[in-house]
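retry 2 of 3: previous attempt timed out while embedding zinc ion. Reduced batch size to 1 and resubmitted. Inputs unchanged:
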Amino acid sequence: MADEIAAKHLEYQLSDTTPSSDKSIAEVRGWFQNCIDNHHGCPKPKSDVLPTRLIEIQSGNCLRLATRVQEGPYVALSYCRGGPQKLALVRKNVNNMAKGFKESDLPLTLQHGIALTRKLGLRYIWIDSLCIIQDDDGDKLRELPKMISNYQNAYITIGSGSPSCCDGFLGDRARCKLDKDDDIPRDMLQM
Ligand SMILES: [Zn+2]
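retry 2 succeeded.
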């Protein structure tokens, strides 16, 4: 049944070839509002059920690892790492990342997730590699079982279809004139 529900929503297609344009963002917001208002079968995000850690999007190029955030909403990013990632949360950088780090230090797919979150007007994003301590087995044991809830309660889950964390997903699609199958926001949003 879940598959049928998902398949129905994949009918949505951006009318603009630039997924990050204002027109595209407005369309995405409209789809989401329609989902909230009219899809009685779709689970609604709960803004008071939050992941242990979130990335807080601050002004300029600044991000911060935030813990014990009391209120959402937040976006979740699902993506394929596809190889080594230049910045991830590890034991030795937890304190520094909580003080703040630069968006430009992240690989492109993660930067695009943050850019889209910002365009949607939201402040928090959950990204597993930045919110679960990658070299801490105890933390993984606690956090991995929460992943389902983390995706379930996100305002929107962005699913990047890019082969790696370095490819990004907001590139202009005009040059590869897409057929119907490829024009769907498959690699952009799953609602
Ligand atoms: Zn829906």
